[in-house]
Structures are given as C-alpha cells and as structure tokens.
Amino acid sequence: MRTDTTAANPYLLLMTTMMLWGGAFSSSKVVVDAVPHTVGAFLRFGGGALALLVVVRLYDRRQTPVPARKLWLGAAAGVLGVFAYNAFFFWGLSLAPSLDAGILIPVLSPVLTTAFLLVSGREKANRARVVGLSLGLVGAVIFFLGAGGATSAGPQRLPGDALFLLSAVCWAAYTLAGPRVMAGIAPLRATTYATCAGAVMLGALAVPDMATVDWTALPSLVWANVGYLAIGGAAVANLLYYRGVAAVGPARASLMMFSVPVVNTLCATLILGESLGWLQAAGACVLLTGAFLALTQGRLPGLRRPVSP
C-alpha cells in the first residue's frame, strides 16, 4: 500500500527541481555576460550530458535494452526541452535581465500547457480556467508593454523577452511530451537521451563562437556557475523533473513552476541587482494570478494522488 509520505515524494522532487531552476536563471546570466550565449548554452548542457552519462555508467548497468523508437522519442524531447528551449533562453539572456526570464518562462509555461490540454480536449474547461487564461494573456501583454518602455536594460529588453516567450512554448511542449517519453523507460535513461541529443545540437550551434572565447581568462566565478548549471541546473534538475512529471502528470507538475519566480527574484535582485519597472511588475502580478487560477481552477489540487503517466 502506498503511504502518504511516498505519495508526496513526487512533489518533493519537483520542488527541489524548482529551487535548482530558480537559481539557474541568475547563474546563467553570469555565464552569458562572460561568453557568447551559444557557448553558455552548450557549457550548461554539454556538462550536464557528461554528468548524466557518468551516472548511467555507474548506476544503470542492469537496465534492459531500450527500443529504437524510445531512443528517437528521447532525442525528440531533447530537441524541444534542451536545444530549442536553451537556444532561445540563452539568446534572450544576452539581451534582457534574468529577472524577466524567471518570471515569463515558469509562469507562461504552465499557462500554455493548460491551454493545450483544454484545446485538445484532454482536460475540461470551466469558468475559473477561462478567466485565469484570459488574465494570463492580459498580464503577459502588460509585461511586454512594460519591457518595451523599460530603459534599465536598453531597447534590447523587449526582443529578449520575446525570446523568453519562445522558450516557454518549447518547455510547454516538453512537459506535455514527458509522460509519453517516460513510458517504458527509466527516468534516468530518458533524461540522459534527451540531454545528450540537445547538447550535441547546442554544441554544433556554438562551434563558430568557441574560437572567440579566451578560455584562460575566464574567472573562477564563471566556472563555478558553469558547474552549478551543468550538474544542478541541468543533470539533477531535469532528472527530478522527469520523475515528477511521470508520477503526477504535466498539469500538476506545471503548477510547481510558481515557486521558480520567487527563488529567481531573490537571486536576481540580491545578487545581480536587477529590477522591474512598475508596469512590468503590475503585468507580472496579473500574469501570476491568471496562471494560478487557470491551473488550480480556483482551488488547490490534491497532492496525495499522483496519476500514472
């Protein structure tokens, strides 16, 4: 019989993931300020792929062979959740503050996930969800209007935020694909396949910029952040996220994303000194409210009944 403690474990895994991701936005900004954004993305997930391969080698030797179709599904997930997501994300970080990314991506991703589930008929719509999604759309518009008028990050802030929006689209698709990719594959292997496939593509994208980096001049702080991003923000976080999605489903997993802006805001303001304008702050509040209402349907979902993938 499953105990309450065991049933709650997927949410503990997801919360740990959100803490790691919350700090990763600011950490990624530190790296992007030192190297081209393509190189920064590859360092994060190239290192993450190596870390996962080592773990698989040490702890996953007895797994049965994975069918070729499952390998291709894992690689396809990597194209979405690693390559496309991070190509847009790191490009956006080279233009806009990490504070914007830490609000737009984790909040818009569950909104987009919920919208797709409703449109596809996989979940039912009700008044609370419709109102929530509408508020989310209004909040996003206000936030982008504030980014367009912001002067603290220059005129490139709005294009950067647009790239963060594309990242959110990629992550919503990645979340929806999670249960299908996980079916019949151990989470460790599924995560490794996706990360390696995405890392190879990020490496190919970064090749032209690698020659421009003075590797010997990079400070130790940059390398420390690369290590955190590769091991904590990529390898460990993605593995825990896959496990959580497999246990509770994409909708409930997306709900946990609301903790990311809190962690990111603390890191971005206290460590990097970033800030939002009043219009962006207002848009963020409306967006958070709408997203929370859309996902919870006006009530908190029960956390004691994880669903099968």
What order do the helices and strands come in, and which of them pair?
Elements: H1 4-32, H2 37-59, H3 68-93, H4 98-119, H5 127-149, H6 157-182, H7 187-210, H8 220-248, H9 250-255, H10 259-270, H11 278-296
Helix pairs in contact: 1-4, 1-8, 1-10, 2-3, 2-7, 2-8, 3-6, 3-7, 4-6, 4-10, 4-11, 5-6, 5-11, 6-8, 7-8
Number of DSSP helical runs: 11
Percent of residues in β-strands: under 5%
Which sheet architecture does the biggest sheet show?
A: none
Radius of gyration (CA) equals 19 Å
Into how many domains do the coordinates divide?
1
Helix fraction? over 70%
Return the structural class: mainly alpha
Instruction: Please write the string of helix (H) and strand (E) elements.
Output: HHHHHHHHHHH
Residue-averaged pLDDT: 81
Report, as a whole number of angstroms, the end-to-end distance.
19 Å
Number of strands: 0
Low-pLDDT residue intervals, each spanning 5 or more residues: 1-8, 301-309
Shape: globular
Organism: Stackebrandtia nassauensis (strain DSM 44728 / CIP 108903 / NRRL B-16338 / NBRC 102104 / LLR-40K-21)
Membrane topology: Multi-pass membrane protein
Keywords: Membrane, Transmembrane, Transmembrane helix
Family: Belongs to the EamA transporter family.
A few lines on this structure:
The protein has 309 residues and is mostly helical. It has helices at residues 4-32, 37-59, 68-93, 98-119, 127-149, 157-182, 187-210, 220-248, 250-255, 259-270, 278-296. It is a multi-pass membrane protein.
Keywords:
309 residues, mainly alpha, 11 helices, 77% helix, globular, disordered C terminus, transmembrane, EamA domain-containing protein, EmrE-like, transmembrane helix, membrane
